[in-house]
Each structure stands twice: as structure tokens, then as C-alpha cells.
Amino acid sequence: MKLKPEKLKSDQAQPVLDLSQLDAGIRTRIEDAVLHLFSEREFHRVGFGEIASTANVSLQTIYKYYGSKEALLYSCLETWLGMLALRMVDHLQGIETYQDKLRKVFWVVLDFFDRNPKVAQLMMSSVYLNTWGRNRTFRQPELMGVLMHTLADGRAQGILTDEVDEKVLLDYFMGVMERLVHMHIMRGRTEPLANDANVLFKMVWRAIAKPGQE
Amino acid sequence: MKLKPEKLKSDQAQPVLDLSQLDAGIRTRIEDAVLHLFSEREFHRVGFGEIASTANVSLQTIYKYYGSKEALLYSCLETWLGMLALRMVDHLQGIETYQDKLRKVFWVVLDFFDRNPKVAQLMMSSVYLNTWGRNRTFRQPELMGVLMHTLADGRAQGILTDEVDEKVLLDYFMGVMERLVHMHIMRGRTEPLANDANVLFKMVWRAIAKPGQE
Amino acid sequence: MKLKPEKLKSDQAQPVLDLSQLDAGIRTRIEDAVLHLFSEREFHRVGFGEIASTANVSLQTIYKYYGSKEALLYSCLETWLGMLALRMVDHLQGIETYQDKLRKVFWVVLDFFDRNPKVAQLMMSSVYLNTWGRNRTFRQPELMGVLMHTLADGRAQGILTDEVDEKVLLDYFMGVMERLVHMHIMRGRTEPLANDANVLFKMVWRAIAKPGQE
Amino acid sequence: MKLKPEKLKSDQAQPVLDLSQLDAGIRTRIEDAVLHLFSEREFHRVGFGEIASTANVSLQTIYKYYGSKEALLYSCLETWLGMLALRMVDHLQGIETYQDKLRKVFWVVLDFFDRNPKVAQLMMSSVYLNTWGRNRTFRQPELMGVLMHTLADGRAQGILTDEVDEKVLLDYFMGVMERLVHMHIMRGRTEPLANDANVLFKMVWRAIAKPGQE
DNA sequence: GATGAATGAGATTTCATTCAT
DNA sequence: GATGAATGAAATCTCATTCAT
Known about the structure:
Four copies of one chain form a homotetramer.
Chain A: H1 24-40, H2 48-55, H3 59-66, H4 69-92, H5 98-115, H6 117-126, H7 129-134, H8 136-139, H9 141-156, H10 166-186, H11 197-208
Helix pairs in contact in A: 1-2, 1-6, 4-5, 5-6, 5-9, 5-11, 9-10
Chain B binds a DNA duplex through helix 3.
């Protein structure tokens, strides 16, 4: 089944960054600094000099490899979300039941942000919802692709509701996860959100499954 | 029934603005300019001078009443969200059924953003999720209060599920609405989202209602 | 003997102020405030609002009668220097000897600033030497005229030196007085400078008198 | 002989500027611009942006090194008056006679302003007499020290008059020079004032020398 | 790859002056 | 004649980005 991704206005033509020449140690220091700073303060309250000195790297190096403050942030996010994607693919292996598969998707996301709460905080303090939608990094086509695919399958098999457009199913799934993670962190909860993944998922399932489904 | 509001860190002590002295015409021009500009471009891409000249008001006047670019934006948002709150209260009058009440809440929100898409766009381009949660303006305690109250009632009457914490019900409700509005605009849809309010609400209802409920 | 005053570039065409309609009490309050404030702080450190509130007069009244901060200051100075001129004319009456006349001029000036030290302070903190020369108010043509006249007379009678241009005699006379008053105040001396007028004048006299004169 | 310098109120604690890091070329361009602009117009009529663009240097660079418009002006003046001081020391070498020494002081000053008329103009348009006296830069302690010292010597040797306080001698000397330079420029004279240094000095000498001295 | 400096843009502040009541 | 607000201009400051070494 072919997915026709939404035609979005600007894909914010990011000049593709080549980080391959960048020393791994330095790169880690930069990413750590970015995570540390942008998760604590809002984008425009974080100074570029601060990033450089926290990472113990020269300003020029960052500029050379990342190009700008914005690009730096997005590039780092791409790294982290890439980790999420990898983990997702890994965990979906060998799952049979349809519901189990969706549940797993749900769980992997909650679990990821339980393990990387700063990534969530950073996205909340430094990324506009807007950018989210317009920027390739945040649309995470691979991840979304898998999910869209799965949901489409569910409909095709008569498992998920067909009262609404397919994309709306995605909206429910994503909307709930986003808000749950967001509020879990805002409320400063410490027990892993993934602990409740089952109950929480059951609710989403009820929303998107064809009524009558168990 | 007593509500224990979340203890949130900083309430971002906004020095209360006094707009009562501000000429209504000027205020409208300013709010229009803010809506126009911040919905098109991101917060930091909108210049203060631009706002002033678009509103045909001097920089100083804006500074006098609003204090800063940030405060200006938040204050305007307060105005608009206040309109939403008013409308909500108005529409909830005289509704009997519990489900009808919740459905109405859902509908009023979708309808509001159908009528004021720029407000949604502005929030997406210029407000961080984070600020959202921390800033009193965005928490809209009155609005949330009503909703929380309603949800609590629903549980007390055995209508809503008690598998999860009450606040999680709120998260589902809000999460879905947020994402629906967000994506509706991102996708550039033109038919009112509120047209589908019924189907969309039914899905949310299935998620949060105690299973077995019609 | 006719005096041909220097042709100076701009006479800073002050739109002649008409203070005749201004209530005497208000005018006094304004002049007092100006004297008080401009003698303590530099011109640009004195706010117009401050002047109005110190004088207990509305900003508009000051603007109406004086036109601007600069004009206000100059107009007040004209008043005070006018008092000096009056006093000068008064005191020069009935003096016979040439030297006595000059000495008297010298004394009247020192005495005036002994009595009105704030006027001196104000001139030092708020008037540029430049403006001094270019502005009619400060050139005080009447006063200077008398002095020039007297010095010319002295040369004609063979009393004053003719080694230099007449105007240079004026420069010596004025330069010394200016500096004496200036430093007397800067040093915070309290005994009247006029007390020493005799000795001090004798020195000036030696400078400008034709050698051999007693 | 010990000099007890006047205790002056505030020494206007200038946060010492460090211009050593400033590129010599840029510094020259800045000083030229300052000289050019402030000698033509009054302090508050010269915009900072104008200075920057005239000097072809960015606003920020000037702020970095000088801190403010006022500090910029004073710092430049320090440079120029420092040149005068250097020249003075240089020229006083190897002069024997007491009178010759004083005459030389007189001449060097007149000559300096003949060569740098804009410096004089700038001081007249942009520096208040007051600031002059209170600000270390303008008191030029080294220069004044030398002069004070010389005058004290003259008294000790019985050459200068002891009718008045030593400081008064300084006042005569300075007052005359100041006024001569000031008026020479105001009158737009073009022949060097230093040409007349001899006659002009003789007059000052008569004023401060003990009568009977040649 | 690091360092220090220069730049341009834009936010914020202060204030004389003007307007309207 | 007083009051309060609006305006324009200019000073000052912060910061991302660029340059040169």
C-alpha cells in the first residue's frame, strides 16, 4: 500500500548537513550541551556562546558543521528521534496480533520519553508546533509511515473504524500520546508513564477500533 | 466536589497589564496586527517595529501598555481565549444530558477554531508548548476548571471510566482536540472541522466512557 | 565712538518670546525651578517633566510660553543676566576716574556671582561655550558694548596698551573674570570673591594698561 | 615644594577603558569622526549612528571599546590633550630663564590650538565647563601639575607676585589662554594666534609678575 | 579546529515634543 | 491653564552570524 504524504508548503530546504567529518567525541559533547540547555530554557533564551562553552567546543566548529542555531537544534533532534525510530523497528519485529502491534508502537513511544525525558522537555520548550509540521525532521516520515501503514492495514482488515478518514485515526493516536507525554512531564511525575501503557492504550483502542471489536 | 489544581512551578508572575486606559480602536488595531503577523511568521521573525507600523501605532504606545513583545502576544491570546471561554459558558447553558454537555464542549472548541483559524495558527507558530503549560494565560483555569469538573462528575455518576486517573481523561479530551485542530490547519482543510464534530466526539467518548456505556 | 560688533554666523533666530501674558508668580516658580535644576545637573540630565513638577506648573504652560527646553533655559538666563546689566549701569553712575570705572565693572561682575552663585553654576553645567558666543542672549550686546566702549576710550586716552587689538583687551578682561568665577565655585570657596576685587583687578590692570601707567 | 591638589567632589569614576585591543586604524577612523562631527555640532546633535557610519565602524564596536557617547568623546579628548601634554614636556626641555619657560608654556598651548583648531571647537561645542572641572581627563593633572609647580617656583624665587594665592596665578594664566583661543576661533581668524604669542604673553606676565620685575 | 573581534538586526528605554480633552 | 496620552528619535544592549588569524 502506497502512502501519499501530505503536500506541505515549505520543506524548509535544510542544506543537508554532513556530520561524518565531525569527531564523535565532539559531536556527543555538542548534543549533550544542546539537550541540557534547550530542555531547561526556551530557544531564544539559550545563547549560542553558551552552547559552545558548555560543549567545550569553539563557536566556529558548530557553525561549520551545523550552520545555525536552528539547524543545530533540528539536527540533534533528528539524532534522537532517529534513535526512537530504530528502537521502534527493532521492537515491532515478530509481533503477530494487530492490536499487539499498535500497542507496542504506543508503548515504545511512552517508554522512549520515560528514558529520555529531556528530549521531550526540549521539544516543548524549543520547538514550535508549526515547525513540527513543516520540518522534515519532525514529521519523521519513516516513523509516521510505519504508523500510517499499520492503521491503513487495520482498516483494510475491518478492525479499525471507517467512520472517519484514515488520517484522523493517526491524529487520535498521536494526539493522545503527545498530550500524555507532555502532561506527564509538566506534572513532574516520576513513575514511568510506560507502566500504564496497557490501560492507556486500551482507551485509544476503543476510540479507533470498529465498535464491537473486543 | 473539590478540585485540587496542579501545583505548577512558576506562574510567570506577569506584571498585571492595565489595558483599561487603552483606546479601544487602538487596541483593536494592535490585536489585529498581532494576529496577522504572528500567525504568518514565527515569534522571533516578527519585528516589534513591524507590529507597530502594521497597527499604525507608535512603538512606545505598545511598550507602555504591554511591556514587551512576549507580553503583547500573551495578552492578545488572553483576549481571544477569553472569547472562547465566554462562548463556552454561553453554550453550555440549558444542556441536560451528560454526554450532550461534553459533546458541546468538544463542538464549541472545534467551532471556535473554525471561526478563528488564525488564532490556532498563531499558537502553533509562536507559542511553545512549554510556555503554554506554565503560563496562566494558556492554562485558562476557568475553562479547564469547568472541563475537569465535568469529567469528575461523569466519573462520580459512573458514566466515565475509572481505570485511570481523572486527569488522564482530561488529557485524552484535550490531546485529541489539540491535534485535530492542529492538523486540520496544517493540512489546509477548508470545510469546518466542527461539521464532523459528532463522529469525532463519538470516538473520544468511546475512549473515556466506561465500557458498556451506549 | 561707534562699535561694529563681530558678524557672527547664526544668531540662532529665537522666535521672540512674549512672557508678558505669563502670571508673575508662575514665572518666578519656573525660573526658580530652572535655576535649581540646571545648576545641579547637566542640561541633558534635567528632564522637562521634572522642571514642570518642580515648578508646579503644567508642561503645556512652559511650552506655550517658552517653546522648548533650550529656549526656556536661555530665556531665564536672559532674565538673570539682564539683572546684572541693570546693576552694572546703576553702579557705573557718577564714577570719574577711568581706572575706577573699569575696576567697578570688574567688581560688579564678581559681586553678582557672589550673590548668585547658582547662575554661575548653571552656566557651567548647562551652556556650551559655543552657544555662548553664538547666542544673542549670551553675548549680552549691551553689557559688552559698554565694556568695549570703555576699553576703546582707555586706548584713545593713551591709558591702555596699544600693542594689541582692542578686542584682545576685552579678552583679557573677560577671560580672567570668567576663570576666576568659575574656579571660585569649583573650589567651593565661601568668602565672597568680590572681597579680593581690588587686588585681583590690579593684576588685570597691569596686563592691559600701557606700561608706565601707575 | 609640595602641591596639595584641590579635593574635588566626584572624580567621575570612569571605568577605565582599554583601547589597547583596538586596531589602530579603526581607532584613528573613530577619532577622526568624533573630531569632525563634534566640532561642527553640539554634543546632543550628533547621533551615535552617524559617528559609526562616518568612521565606517559598527555601532557595537564603538560601544564595546568606549561604552557610551559621553565616554567616547572624553576618551578622544584625552588622546588629544595627551598630545598637547607630550609636546609641552618636549618643548620645555633645556630652557633656562624662568620667564622663557612660562612663555614657552603659553606658546605651546596657542600653537597647539592653531594646529588643531577642531579640538578647540569640539571642546567649545560639546563639553560643559563643569564637566571640564570635574572630570579627570580635562583637569589634565600632569599638565596642570607642571604649570602649578612652575608658578610656585616663580613665587619662591620672588619673581611672581605674592599679593594673591598661588592658584589665582594659575587662573590668570589659564583664563587668558582659554579666552584667547576661544575667541580666536569664534572670530574665525586665520593667522596663527601663536604669531602674537610674545606680545600676548608679555601682558600676562605683567599681570602675574611682581611689580618692578623687568 | 580554536580564538577574538566586528557586524547587523532588532529589542528596549528614555525623553522632548505634540495632541486632545 | 491643567492633564494624560501618543509620537518620533536616539541611546543602549543583546545576540546570532561572519571574518581573520
